[in-house]
Design goal:
The protein is of the alpha+beta class. The strands form seven sheets. Strands 2, 3, 4, 5 and 10 form a five-stranded mixed sheet that branches. It has a five-stranded antiparallel sheet with strand order 12-11-21-20-19, with helices on both faces. A hairpin with a 5-residue loop joins β11 (about 255-260) and β12. α16 (about 315-325) crosses α18. The protein starts with a helix and ends in a 5-residue tail after the last helix.
């Protein structure tokens, strides 16, 4: 009896297991297998939108998409019996488009084709619309060729504002892993605004869910989502002003920033020399790459944010504020001889005969080195560093460009970390005039000049909708006013280091010149060589940073000319011309 009960229980248990399995397969797994079966007959086709247009502030296109066509060839033509078909197709393409090579097209096909490939092999990515249009019917009728529309990025102004706008390139495997949209667009922003705003410019994918049969033939569209159409961006640039500056700067090497002093909008900016962004879209040749990469003027470097330079005397306004903010008497007057001795070393003034009795205003106006030497020893490097840090040095400006450098605003701790060495008093002295370890970018100087004009630090930006509230800076208004008066004297008063060089400006400005040494001067040299007597790459960098109008600051112009010598003579005339252009275009009221 016990055995019979055990058999009955065993049969009942097995029946329950079988019922449970049938339930799982017929009901619980139904959803899973239904979704799996859909993949056998529903195909999702993704579509990338055309890349967004980049415009200037007035709607003029700076980066567009040129229309054209691509040519793709049917897969599985690599076999011996189909080889003749492949060769004839490539011959036909070359017959009508001789800029391509038959051998190269075949080589590309053999590389991309495989027994497992079911999509057409793209041999030619882009042929301009005008070149292909009259041949469209011919190629579209060919059985083994697929003609599709294609676009190519184009920069109408070529090398103007090239570092700012940036360029696109083919998406690499790493790009595709990080950015799935680039798998379908085939391109991605590589530099400048193209890279910084790549997500906005590339837009969002659209798709179609298509019902297909066993032969992969499309039967009907089941669902559809359109690509995004709001991916254009408008910049703050004025391309007319930008082109004017490009022509005026000529073949010099350096950088220019023209920025709204109050909100950080950049009307024009350039890193020189520039290059044509289209060479990267079309595929740069080895010759072009070698010419650009071996140029000692570094055309590939965006000097606005990646060029690090000693600021020279444009640093002095911030240092003077550091003195004032650290309890130096605003009415102090020091006798400034041609040199100051510290230990066994002489620190010379730029003026061989010295400046005599000097106060803060004269120190700015005539750029009196010895005045700064003496007070730097009274205040110290750490206090100078702390104050200049508030004015944006040693940190990013926040501009919408990639890989911005922070420069060096040195102090004792920085040197200890960097070189594991103590700080010396002589290093404080040379730091006070923007030499030694001090390094800045032109964009930092432009932002700092805006602070000197308004008392606030704006965030520089190229995107029209990129405004951020300016950073409030804790500074004594009386101290700032004293610096502003000194800067006014630089461009307007007798003895001002830029007065005669900006005299053609129709706008009253305030500013400061800077001559930043790139090679040290031996102690034994009593009379310094003139800048034009030095070899070109040994000449000092020339700075001129200004704001205008003086009594109602609206715009900042910062100019750096590499190896340009004196800031006033190198940058004064072009600064005056730019302010006159701003007046002509209606920016300055």
């Amino acid at each position: 009896m016990k055995r019979l009960n055990f058999i009955i229980l065993f049969i009942a248990a097995m029946a329950l297991l079988l019922l449970a399995r049938v339930y799982f397969l017929s009901i619980k797994s139904n959803t899973y297998y239904e979704e799996l079966s859909k993949q056998n007959y529903i195909k999702r086709i993704y579509e990338a939108p055309s890349r967004g247009i980049i415009e200037d502030r007035n709607g003029v296109a700076l980066a567009i998409n040129n229309l054209g066509f691509s040519l793709s060839v049917k897969p599985h033509l690599r076999s011996y019996k189909n080889q003749q078909i492949l060769e004839e197709l490539c011959e036909t393409i070359v017959q009508y488009f001789p800029e391509f090579s038959k051998e190269e097209l075949i080589k590309k096909y053999l590389k991309l084709d495989s027994p497992y490939r079911h999509t057409y092999v793209q041999l030619i990515e882009y042929i301009p619309y005008d070149n292909f249009f009259d041949k469209y019917t011919l190629f579209n009728a060919m059985e083994n060729i697929k003609v599709e529309s294609a676009v190519k990025r184009y920069y109408p102004y070529q090398n103007i504002a090239s570092h700012i706008i940036g360029y696109v390139g083919k998406a690499s495997r790493e790009d595709i892993q990080e950015n799935p949209v680039s798998k379908y667009s085939g391109i991605i922003g590589k530099n400048g605004l193209e890279k910084f705003y790549n997500e906005k410019l590339q837009g969002k994918l659209g798709y179609k869910d298509v019902k297909v049969n066993a032969l992969n033939k499309h039967l009907e569209i089941l669902d559809e989502k359109e690509v995004s159409k709001d991916n254009n961006i408008q910049t703050t640039l004025d391309i007319e002003l930008q082109s004017f500056i490009h022509d005026e700067f000529g073949d010099q090497s350096g950088a220019i920033v023209v920025m709204n002093a109050n909100d950080g909008e950049i009307l024009a900016a350039g890193s020189f020399p520039e290059f044509d962004n289209n060479i990267f879209v079309n595929g740069i040749t080895h010759k072009q790459w070698n010419e650009l990469s071996s140029d000692f003027n570094h055309p590939f470097t965006n000097k606005l944010i990646n060029g690090l330079y000693p600021p020279g005397s444009v640093w002095k306004m911030g240092v003077a504020l550091a003195f004032l903010e650290n309890n130096v008497d605003p009415d102090i007057s020091l006798y400034c001889a041609p040199e100051m001795k510290l230990g066994e070393r002489l620190f010379r003034d730029w003026k061989p005969e010295g400046h005599g009795w000097t106060n803060f205003r004269k120190a700015i106006r005539e750029s009196v080195d010895v005045f700064f030497y003496k007070l730097s020893l009274k205040v110290g490097i750490d206090e100078m560093h702390q104050t200049l840090n508030k004015y944006g040095f040693g940190q990013k400006t926040g501009i919408d460009q990639v890989n911005e450098f922070i420069g060096v605003n040195p102090n004792k701790e920085w040197k200890k970390k960097r070189y594991n060495k103590p700080w010396y008093m002589g290093e404080t002295v040379i730091s006070s005039i923007g030499q030694g370890y001090v390094l800045v970018t032109p964009m930092q100087v432009a932002r700092y000049t805006a602070f000197l004009a308004t008392g606030n630090l704006p965030t520089p930006h190229f995107f029209k909708d990129g405004y951020k509230e300016p950073e409030k800076v804790d500074v004594n208004p009386a101290h700032l006013k004293m610096i502003q008066r000194g800067m006014y004297d630089v461009t307007n008063k007798e003895g001002g280091t830029a007065r005669w060089h900006v005299r053609n400006s129709k706008v009253t400005m305030a500013g400061k010149t800077g001559t930043a040494q790139v090679v040290s001067i031996p102690q034994s040299e009593k009379v310094r060589m003139k800048e034009h007597e030095l070899e070109y790459y040994h000449r000092s960098h020339a700075w001129l940073t200004t704001y205008a109008p003086y009594d109602n600051p609206q715009y900042v112009i910062t100019i750096l000319i590499e190896h340009g010598g004196h800031g006033g003579s190198a940058g004064g005339d072009i600064t005056a011309k730019i302010y006159n252009k701003l007046l002509e275009l209606g920016y300055i009221k």
